[in-house]
Amino acid sequence: MNIAILDDHELIRVGLCATLQGLPHTVTINTGNADDFFNKLLEGVPCDLVLLDILMPGTTGIEVAQRLRAEYPDIKIIIVSVDTKEYIVTRLMQIGIDGFVSKNGPLEEVKAAIASVEEGVPYYGRDLAVLVRDIVDARLDKKSSALLTKRELEIIEACCSGMLGKEIAEKFHISLRAVNSHKTNIFNKLGLSSSVEMVRFALEHGII
What we know:
Strand order of the largest sheet: 2-1-3-4-5-6
Number of strands: 6
Structural class: alpha/beta
Helix content: 40-55%
Radius of gyration: 18 Å
CATH class of the largest domain: Alpha Beta
CATH superfamily of the largest domain: Response regulator
Order of helices and strands: EHEHEHEHEHEHHHHHH
Largest sheet: 6 strands, parallel
Low-confidence stretches: none
CATH topology of the largest domain: Rossmann fold
Distance between the termini: 30 Å
């Protein structure tokens, strides 16, 4: 993947570059200025994913995310910020970011976020787990959730937290076959075909 780093703090950019060393990714854009970032995109500099700060002078990270979704919808967005206020995270989720990692967490979590987003699964850091749960609960899609049983909702939540089938079976004291049966029912009810689609659907529609 071609990765862009957009953060006005040079030390953060240096730290992120060091974290990405040794991974099969290339940092193609490294800047602290939103105008410079978009100019490079216009020049054709390749970018598949951007690690984006929120609090920047001039154009904010929220404005950058909005413009990316409008003009470059294929570019993945992972927010890397110390600002995890609920209204900010809510707004970014509405825009459609692919992940959020708190700067208060370990740099290694950035690797986990990139790997998850690369596979098409949204990623929110451990520091944000409770907050994201509160946000999606607040915008619960009543129509979609009404289709699902309590156990099916529990299965979805477990999948969203990254648990494997065997782990889910152990947690709820049911067989792996029962877990797979529940997942099949969920797919059929929601018109989905994979666990990845289920996780994305659950986050986008506030099912969990």
